[in-house]
Write a structure and sequence with these properties.
Elements (H helix, E strand, L loop, with lengths): L11 H10 L4 E6 L5 H14 L5 E6 L13 H5 L2 H4 L2 E5 L8 H11 L3 E7 L6 H13 L2 E6 L10 H7 L7 E5 L11 H8 L3 H4 L5 H8 L2 E5 L5 E5 L12 H8 L3 E4 L10 E7 L4 H13 L1 E3 L6 H5 L6 E3 L3 H13 L1 E3 L5 E3 L5 H12 L4 E4 L3 H11 L3 E4 L5 H12 L5 E4 L14 E4 L6 H8 L11 E7 L4 H9 L2
Helix pairs in contact: 1-2, 12-14
């Protein structure tokens, strides 16, 4: 008998899939971003717990995204019924804190929880400590294993994929979820499905990956300058890969997956807001806390002794005025800071914010706007995205501004990277996603920027994603906007 009751009412498509698939041992949820995959998984997990089928959930997601499963107002805290939430023990795993006594104590507490949830990043499974922790968790509990953004294991030869596949035999139930369509990158679905359903492709007549790819595409022989022969997928006149038998692939996937597009959901709200949480490095956090406490911080205390003896001092950042301090703290979160001499100093490499953005943009199949408070952010992002992005800020000439808008609207470029200089007077309805990499403090600018792609001419609902580091100025700014 089902004793599970919803905390937040499901939309029609969520209720339908819940009723049809909640008892299945494995399933793939291929829904567009913003259609409520997380809520669906939480409801399925709650149901299976109430039925006595599981007593734990292991969620594996991209770094930063894994934290979204358990933050105020989101994930578990929003959708899990309160009576179940009271018996849930949960831990968001951070590799940088894995060896701390506090994390070990949390793991110990988690092992005794009535309903245990462990959230880990894909990259954590590359570490020995992370892999052992995940394996032990699965072996000791009756567990639902969830791969969020499962396209992260699309490459069967990658170390990450091989390690994660070691977890599959220990899972009682499995769900994989992603919004990346197989229609655009059909080869990517092979490894994901073989994880959830280890024998499925063989049952469909594909004994190996190469047989799968040759069924969906034609290849031609090519010879390298050294005389080695290899195969290359055939392309059209513009160099785009050509595929075949995609209707047959859809038929094969239908019994084990749900594919849903935003355009097919009639009761979907027009705007979808998501906070994407990530963590600073230990060095960033140290600089942040010192500046916040003492109003001054030395950026490089490890300068060569001969420079110090010659009177050369390391760069210093001082901020005794509140508004300046908030500005410098925000810069530190973004990975750099302006010192008292006016120089911009990088404080971390690689930059966690840029790494998170790279993961998100890699999976986007449609145009997006990336909003930045600082010009430095625009520089870093456009350098990272290269030829896929256009820039729009105070340094952009009037002519280049017109060209930038046209490039996004016309489909020539996928990403529009901008400051509040672009918040007024332009139309960017080609973009279905707006990423707020760093937020401006002004509510009016935020509202205006949201309307660039949410206006007449927009045929889709719009997803707004805000980058946030918990407990920092980024969270304070976003809370103050109160959109």
């Amino acid at each position: 008998m089902n004793n599970y009751t919803f905390r937040t009412p499901p939309l029609a498509h969520q209720l339908r899939l819940y009723e049809e698939t909640r008892d299945l041992h494995a399933y793939a949820v291929f829904w567009d971003m913003g259609l409520g995959k997380t809520k669906h998984i939480i409801d399925v997990a709650g149901y299976l717990f109430c039925e006595g089928e599981i007593d734990a959930v292991l969620v594996i997601a991209p770094n930063g995204v894994h934290a979204n499963w358990d933050v105020p107002g989101e994930g578990l805290q929003r959708h899990m019924p309160e009576e179940l939430l009271r018996v849930v023990g949960r831990l968001t795993w951070h590799s940088s804190k894995a060896k701390l006594a506090s994390t070990k104590q949390q793991l110990k507490v988690l092992s005794h929880s009535q309903f245990a949830w462990l959230m880990m990043a894909y990259d954590a499974l590359i570490t020995e400590n992370g892999l052992i922790t995940a394996e032990n968790f699965l072996k000791q509990r009756r567990c639902l294993l969830v791969l969020d953004e499962s396209q992260r294991i699309k490459n069967a030869k990658a170390k990450r994929t091989k390690r994660i596949k070691k977890l599959r035999p220990h899972a009682d139930y499995v769900r994989i979820m992603t919004g990346t369509p197989a229609e655009q990158r059909p080869f990517d679905v092979y490894s994901q499905i073989s994880f959830a359903f280890p024998h499925y492709w063989r049952e469909q007549g594909f004994g190996a990956y190469i047989a799968f790819t040759h069924h969906l595409a034609d290849f031609r022989k090519q010879r390298s300058p050294l005389g080695h022969e290899f195969e290359v997928q055939r392309t059209d006149s513009e160099g785009k890969p050509l595929y075949k038998n995609l209707d047959e692939l859809s038929r094969m996937l239908k019994p084990i997956s749900s594919r849903l597009l935003k355009d097919e959901v009639l009761d979907l709200p027009e705007k979808q807001y998501t906070r994407v949480y990530y963590e600073m490095t230990a060095q960033q956090r140290k600089l942040y806390e010192v500046l916040e406490r003492d109003y001054v911080v030395w950026l490089n205390e490890q300068m060569p002794l001969d420079q110090l003896e010659n009177g050369v001092l390391p760069p210093m950042v001082s901020a005794d005025i509140a508004i300046v301090r908030q500005l410098r703290l925000h810069q530190l979160v973004m990975g750099y800071v302006t010192d008292d001499g006016g120089a911009v100093n990088s404080v971390v490499e690689p930059n966690p914010a840029l790494e998170l953005l790279a993961e998100i943009t890699e999976d986007l199949a449609h145009p997006a706007i990336i909003w930045c408070r600082f010009r430095k952010d625009v520089e870093l992002i456009t350098h990272q995205l290269g030829s896929h992005a256009v820039r729009y800020d105070g340094t952009t000439s009037p002519e280049d501004r017109v060209r930038a808008v046209a490039a996004l609207q016309g489909g020539e470029k996928q990403f529009f990277v901008a400051t509040s200089a672009a918040a007024e007077g332009i139309t960017l309805t080609a973009a279905r996603t707006a990423i707020y990499y760093s937020n401006d403090r002004k509510l009016g600018k935020r509202q205006q920027s949201e309307d660039r792609n949410h206006r007449i001419g927009q045929a889709h609902s719009v997803q707004y994603q805000d980058f946030v580091v918990p407990g920092t100025i980024t969270e304070i700014i976003l809370d103050s906007l109160m959109y």
